[in-house]
Specification:
single chain; 502 residues; alpha+beta; 3-stranded mixed beta sheet; 14 helices; disordered N terminus
Length: 502
């Protein structure tokens, strides 16, 4: 996985460090980096391109030369048809053979073989009748078999290789999709932690104000300015805000743990997000963003890779509906002698050549198996084309929705800013009214609660705006590039090489 981190070119900051005892200050860039390097789902997904690389190399093994070695010993005793040939009523023959060879597949579907055949023969034939009764018989044979119709060409021959390479492209795009989703999730959860911490601060401020109101109310009741029941209202306000604070603290702790698992950070220290959501205007060009998404969305690239593979399989399936017509040829240089050395010399002299050439034709009547395999492959190609068109429509719609969300959330920031300003002024007004007896303690607490809600809405609008930008980058496929993350097939190759050395 260390090699993967080198290939994923991250223009990010250093790994987060403990800022102080029990706290981890974490920038958004550091959070993304930690997820890319450590997230277990990302690590697990990278094994698929690595395994796909193993499949590619396995299928390339069809071109590995094959060494062969045949050896045997045969012995027979048979009744002679004519004693004139052997000088005996019984034929006794023994033979020892040892035949090393090598054969190789060639790119257009044929095979080439080279064999060195050696046979040592011994019989009981009478040497007086001009028969060799002990001799070596050797030959060097070159054979070629080449399909001329069915299975002719590189595509039928290398179909397994090409399919494996297509699958590897698809697995790389799936890894990119997983990484894209993970990075988008990190940004969302990072800002969610920021949101919850800000809400926690709002709850603390609200509780402090409620306690101050309670203290002021108690003093004024003691002075006889307010009735005693106002203390109950103030105490209820403090109790309800203490519960709200407790709930907010629990939510922050839960989000800390969730983000810690997502980023695989040490199980200690409170995470402090140091980057705040942006409120800068975001310019969009719908036509350009849709075009960009249709070009680089990894889900589309994966489906297009699947289409190329299916079109190749369809082409090969059509080829396999043709008749079998094979060219078979061989050439052998032979020798025979009672001495093995002279036998081999005769082979090398090429004085005794043997050659042959011929054609083999075969075609099943009806050819239903091959014909229906071709039909099935055509249907699969059309199915994938339809799926791509559907995915393109969804991608275009995703981009439009994301653009609208950005515009809506940016407007929401302005609305919540105004809402917070109004709530603050209204609270100040009610505090003054309460001081002169024109508003009850309950009125002040209700207005203060409205201010807390307005602050929460403002924070949520800021976070929602940043999340909308993240979502747009996600649906256009630009998120990794925006963060300086580059994914190539070398990531899986590095993991493959790491395990190949073990």
């Amino acid at each position: 996985m260390k090699r993967m981190c080198a290939a994923l070119c991250l223009c990010l900051a250093a790994v987060p460090a403990l800022a102080e005892e029990g706290r981890i200050s974490l920038t958004l860039a550091e959070a993304v980096r930690s997820a890319v390097e450590r997230n277990l789902d990302v690590k697990a997904e990278l094994y698929n391109p690595a395994m796909a690389e193993a499949d590619v190399r396995k299928n390339k093994g069809i071109y590995n030369p094959r060494l062969t070695l045949d050896t045997a010993f045969d012995y027979s005793e048979t009744e002679a048809v004519s004693a004139f040939q052997t000088g005996s009523a019984i034929n006794r023959n023994s033979q020892f053979t040892i035949n090393p060879g090598i054969n190789q597949l060639i790119p257009f579907g044929g095979t080439v073989g080279l064999t060195f055949n050696n046979a040592y023969n011994k019989n009981n034939a009478s040497s007086e009748r001009l028969f060799l009764n002990e001799y070596w018989n050797s030959d060097v044979s070159l054979s070629i078999s080449q399909p001329l119709l069915k299975n002719f060409g590189r595509e039928p021959t290398e179909l397994g290789i090409m399919v494996a390479m297509g699958n590897k492209d698809g697995s790389t795009e799936r890894f990119k999709t997983k990484l894209l989703d993970t990075v988008a999730r990190v940004r969302t959860e990072y800002y969610r932690l920021y949101l919850l911490r800000e809400e926690l601060e709002v709850k603390r401020t609200s509780l402090d104000l409620a306690r101050k109101i309670l203290s002021d109310t108690q003093a004024r009741v003691k002075a006889g300015v307010l009735p005693a029941m106002e203390i109950l209202n103030a105490e209820f306000g403090v109790a309800s805000r203490e519960k709200d604070l407790n709930d907010a603290e629990r939510a922050v702790l839960n989000q800390n743990d969730f983000l810690r698992v997502l980023l695989q950070l040490p199980m200690q220290g409170e995470i402090i997000p140091t980057d705040v959501p942006t409120r800068d205007p975001f310019q969009t060009n719908q036509e350009e963003l849709v075009r960009r998404a249709l070009e680089i969305r990894p889900e589309l690239l994966e489906q297009r890779s699947n289409l190329r593979t299916s079109e190749l399989q369809m082409k090969v399936a059509h080829n396999r509906t043709l008749p079998d017509l094979n060219l078979n040829s061989s050439l052998a240089l032979t020798g025979i002698d009672s001495k093995y050395r002279r036998d081999v010399e005769k082979v090398g002299s090429a004085d005794y050549p043997v050659w042959s050439v011929g054609l083999t034709f075969e075609y099943p009547l009806g050819n239903d198996a091959a014909r229906n395999e071709y039909i099935r492959s055509r249907l699969q190609v059309e199915q994938i084309r339809t799926q791509i068109r559907s995915l393109e429509s969804n991608v275009e719609n995703d981009v439009k929705i994301a653009i609208r969300a950005i515009k809506t959330n940016f407007k929401q920031i302005e609305v919540t800013d105004r809402g917070k300003a109004f709530a603050e002024e209204r609270l100040r007004s009610f505090i003054r009214k309460n001081e002169v007896g024109l508003a009850t303690t309950r009125d002040v607490l209700d207005v203060e609660n409205d201010l807390a809600t307005a602050k929460d809405n403002q924070i949520k609008a800021l976070v929602g705006y940043s999340e909308a930008i993240t979502q747009l980058w996600r649906v256009t496929g630009d998120l990794l590039e925006k963060l300086g993350i580059t994914v190539t097939e070398m990531d899986g190759d590095s993991l493959y090489a790491q395990h190949a050395r073990q």
